[in-house]
């Protein structure tokens, strides 16, 4: 680093002292904390984003959001050149940067890292970072801190893309680096045109079976509902009623949103007995998750939840069907046929019944730790990789080689059997690859794909929910003195620390028919999460409560 660069960093960073006595870490989805603690961290992540752009010669994204967390929290994460999460190799540097005590330490760290990574400041290429933020009131000042961080690297440019859903920002980075249109307008255009294409390809017989084109959306009082209202105008065929847009004084994620609905299994605010029988969907605060639900007859608060596992199952069913149509009969021995590898990725939170169902479909099911960064990486190993967390975060990834093959196949079929089922299957798969975000889970694209598939199959939400019966489950969280005291293994199914805790959980779980339980430290909140599953709801609740007590005994406040 030359002197000009060093003195720029010194001047700027002295205006962003780190908070005292707080250790932050780049968790499941970036840094998250009370917004008042984050000025320095966001400033420093701005520096990291500019360095990442220098290193990769690409456009990088920086998103300011704490997604499902409380409105008083905020957070920051990086989108890599392909639109995915920051390379995990850079996470230790992010941690070190965020926690460097003084500007001098910060500069030393950056110098060492720049040398180790062989980052050149004289590449002569543009260094660009796209910035986005959700609707949190603290977002504006944190965005300024991020901009200062980015421009603390000589020649780096920060481009404010405005208030966005997290997946929109990831999508824009992906598109920019592929030299495609990357404005919000392009995003809406791509989603709406691929949706319309899929709707046009729905078999005639299916359309009338599900008369209900009306969808009621809980926007979590965040950014997603508002963006969906814009998108709806381009769709023609769906009637979407958005509630909890945040415009009527509702608080972000408070009694609303996908996280609340999935964890509590009750209706969000503004929903109730008048909604019995309707198809409802809940987004989270930054619209990277979605879960469906319906209100059963006679209920005003309870719901029938259709979670991320069921979305995954619906997608898997549809994709599998399209792939088998493509490979049908006469196609088998034709030159150029392609046995696409289809795989699905879940976490330990996946309901046991969903995993059994997917295996019965003959699919390869892989388990990873919680966090899209892990699931995405695994799904990318397939030609078509579908990943979903039970909480509704997921997408479908198509390999570049499979997309190329599909495009060539579609052209070929166009000339020999235009309009055939096989050509339609190729077109559908191509449209799905454009509708569903290739960078990260996206509630808007996910929602449109669910709607298309339900219409394609002629299914109601109830028929969809009957794919398999969920095992009753319960999720709880426990505040402990130090959540890092819990260390897990085997995709978080086993707690290897503190010693003895797993044995205690095992002996409790063994008391329950179809019992399963695990604990893990959250990467977005200061808690230990507890999951329990058993043959009845009452048993799942009891098991979760007992495991919570075990966590408290081993790690609760007051124990050393
Ligand atoms: C983030 C991650 C998800 C993860 C969730 C909860 O979601 O992107 O992969 O499931 O946090 O993580 P944890 O249990 O570690 O707190 P979001 O929607 O908050 O960005």
Automatic annotation (TrEMBL):
Active-site residues?
A: 67 (phosphoserine intermediate)
Give one GO molecular function term: phosphoacetylglucosamine mutase activity
- The chain positions of domain Phosphoacetylglucosamine mutase AMG1 read 182-291, 307-459
Sites binding Mg(2+) sit at 67, 284, 286, 288
**Pathway the protein contributes to:** Nucleotide-sugar biosynthesis; UDP-N-acetyl-alpha-D-glucosamine biosynthesis; N-acetyl-alpha-D-glucosamine 1-phosphate from alpha-D-glucosamine 6-phosphate (route I): step 2/2
Q: Which residues bind substrate?
A: 389-391, 520-524, 529
List the InterPro entries hit by this protein, alphabetically. Answer: A-D-PHexomutase_a/b/a-I, A-D-PHexomutase_a/b/a-I/II/III, A-D-PHexomutase_C, A-D-PHexomutase_C_sf, AMG1_II, AMG1_III, PAGM
| Database matches in Pfam families | AMG1_II, AMG1_III, PGM_PMM_I, PGM_PMM_IV
Q: Which reaction does it catalyse?
A: N-acetyl-alpha-D-glucosamine 1-phosphate = N-acetyl-D-glucosamine 6-phosphate
GO terms (BP aspect)? carbohydrate metabolic process; UDP-N-acetylglucosamine biosynthetic process
- According to the entry, every stretch annotated as the Alpha-D-phosphohexomutase C-terminal domain falls at 477-548
**Swiss-Prot/TrEMBL keywords:** Isomerase, Magnesium, Metal-binding, Phosphoprotein
Gene3D superfamilies attached to this UniProt entry: Alpha-D-Glucose-1,6-Bisphosphate, subunit A, domain 3, Alpha-D-phosphohexomutase, C-terminal domain
The record places domain Alpha-D-phosphohexomutase alpha/beta/alpha at: 57-89, 128-180
- UniProt remark on cofactor binding: Binds 1 Mg(2+) ion per subunit.
Give the EC number(s) listed in the UniProt record: 5.4.2.3
Give cofactor(s), names only: Mg(2+)
Return the broad EC class.
isomerase
Q: Can you tell me which family this protein belongs to?
A: Belongs to the phosphohexose mutase family.
Function in brief: Interconverts GlcNAc-6-P and GlcNAc-1-P.
What is the name of the protein in this document?
Phosphoacetylglucosamine mutase
Q: Which organism is it from?
A: Quillaja saponaria
State the organism's lineage.
Eukaryota, Viridiplantae, Streptophyta, Embryophyta, Tracheophyta
């Amino acid at each position: 680093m030359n002197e000009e660069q060093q003195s720029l960093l010194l001047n700027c960073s002295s205006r962003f002292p780190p908070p005292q006595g707080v250790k932050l870490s780049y968790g499941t989805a970036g840094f998250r904390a009370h917004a008042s603690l984050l000025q320095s961290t966001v400033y420093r992540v701005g520096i990291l984003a500019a360095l990442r752009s220098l290193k990769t010669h690409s456009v990088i994204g920086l998103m300011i959001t704490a997604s499902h967390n409380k409105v008083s929290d905020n957070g920051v994460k990086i989108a890599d050149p392909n639109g995915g999460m920051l390379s995990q190799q850079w996470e230790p540097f992010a941690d070190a940067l965020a926690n460097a005590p003084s500007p001098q330490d910060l500069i030393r760290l950056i110098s060492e890292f720049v040398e180790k990574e062989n980052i050149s400041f004289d590449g002569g290429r543009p260094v660009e970072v796209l910035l986005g933020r959700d609707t949190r009131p603290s977002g504006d000042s944190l965005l300024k801190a991020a901009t200062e961080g980015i421009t603390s690297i000589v020649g780096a440019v920060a481009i404010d893309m405005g208030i966005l859903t997290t997946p929109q920002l990831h999508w824009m980075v992906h598109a920019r680096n592929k030299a495609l249109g990357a404005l919000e307008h392009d995003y809406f255009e791509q989603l709406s045109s691929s949706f319309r294409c899929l709707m046009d390809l729905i078999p005639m017989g299916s359309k009338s079976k599900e008369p209900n084109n009306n969808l009621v959306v809980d926007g979590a009082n965040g950014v997603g509902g508002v963006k969906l209202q814009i998108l709806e105008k381009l769709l023609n065929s769906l009637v979407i009623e958005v509630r909890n847009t945040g415009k009527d004084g509702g608080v972000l994620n408070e009694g609303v949103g996908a996280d609340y609905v999935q964890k509590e299994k009750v209706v969000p605010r503004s929903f109730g007995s008048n909604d019995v029988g309707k198809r409802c969907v809940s987004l989270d605060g930054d619209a990277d998750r979605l879960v469906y639900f319906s209100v059963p007859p006679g209920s005003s608060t309870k719901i029938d939840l259709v979670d991320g596992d069921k979305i995954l199952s619906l997608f898997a069913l549809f994709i599998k069907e399209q792939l088998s149509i493509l490979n049908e009969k006469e196609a088998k021995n034709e030159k150029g046929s392609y046995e696409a590898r289809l795989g699905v990725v879940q976490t330990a939170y996946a309901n046991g019944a969903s995993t059994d169902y997917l295996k019965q479909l003959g699919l390869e099911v892989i388990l990873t730790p919680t966090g899209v960064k892990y699931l995405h990486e695994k799904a990318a190993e397939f030609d078509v990789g579908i990943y979903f967390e039970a909480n509704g975060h997921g997408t479908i990834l198509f390999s570049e080689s499979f997309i190329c093959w599909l495009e060539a196949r579609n052209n070929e079929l166009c000339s020999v059997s235009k309009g055939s089922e096989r050509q339609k299957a190729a077109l559908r798969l191509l449209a799905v690859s454009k509708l569903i975000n290739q960078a990260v889970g996206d509630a808007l694209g996910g929602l449109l794909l669910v709607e298309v598939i339900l219409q394609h199959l002629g299914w109601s939400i109830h028929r969809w929910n009957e794919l398999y019966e969920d095992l009753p489950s319960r999720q709880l969280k426990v505040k402990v003195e130090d959540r890092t005291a819990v260390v897990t293994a085997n995709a978080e199914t086993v707690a290897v620390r503190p010693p003895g805790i797993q044995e205690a959980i095992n002996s409790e779980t063994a008391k329950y028919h179809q019992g399963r339980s695990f604990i893990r430290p959250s990467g977005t909140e200061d808690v230990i999460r507890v999951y329990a599953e058993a043959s009845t709801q009452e048993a799942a609740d009891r098991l979760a409560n007992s495991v919570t007590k075990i966590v408290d005994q081993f790690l609760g406040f007051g124990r050393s």
